[in-house]
Amino acid sequence: MEEKKKKDIKDIEDIVKKTQVWKAIFGDLLFGEFKPLSPINSLMRGIAKIMQLHPYNMSVGGKRIITYTFCLGGLSVFFFSLLAVTGAFLMIYYNPDVNSAYSNMEDIRYVVPFGVLIRNMHRWTAHLMVMFVALHMLRVFLTGAYKPPRELNWIVGVILLVMTLLASFTGYLLPWDQLAYWGVTIGTSMGENAPILGAKGPFAILPPGGDVNSVLLGGTSVGQPTLLRFYLLHAIAIPLGMAGLMGFHFWRIRRAGGVSGPL
Ligand code: HEM
Known about the structure:
CATH superfamily of one domain: Cytochrome Bc1 Complex, Chain C
Bound molecules: protoporphyrin IX containing FE
CATH architecture of one domain: Up-down Bundle
């Protein structure tokens, strides 16, 4: 009886492991081809790779890689890094306090040396990043690079896209001017009208001040708790989450044997 039970479990495991979903997430690409190298061997390989920034040989189609990807993913990483650096400088002069946030912005623009340059670089790069991530997604779609074995990386990409948009949205509130205040009031009111979890939405089960919108706002309307929450999300949580996911995204590209084409 015990034997039969074990065999049944093994059979079910075999069936599950053959499904596309399992292969996409845990399949050969995650652990299968992994051949551990000795520490010395892997160190030497690492050094060799750094020394030969350009490979000795490449495939015939390899030189078309630029017009295949247009480096849209690479440019998104570049914009992300630029945002991290310019954002770190802005943090020196910005305090997420409703009484000083706006005047901090004015100081950055008119008093701090190179402040206006750094701020505008941060703002324009943010717009560019949203645009380039969307274009990168379009390229991946048009070249069919979302197909097996890259399905999981497509899903990771979608999460990265949502996080890019959330980073933009949370940053929008920080100048604490009228545009930011009302923009975020309107944006977050979507949560208030969400079904079931929003206080004013259809089938609402939660009271005003205790619904999903209030978690984001830290109250019933945009105020000091909102500014602090958005600041922490914008400057810490979202960038750290994105950096981790990007590492995973790149590792999965390597595991899939590199970018999908051209052959
Ligand atoms: C912060 C956002 C993102 C960054 C920094 C990023 C970065 C990259 C980079 C550097 C590559 C290598 C090839 C290239 O440059 O085109 C790549 C490939 C890929 N990305 Fe992204 N990506 C992001 C968002 C997305 C999104 C939104 C999707 C789709 C929903 C996506 C899906 C993929 C897939 C499937 C590949 C493999 C493509 C292939 O093998 O041809 N990524 N990504």
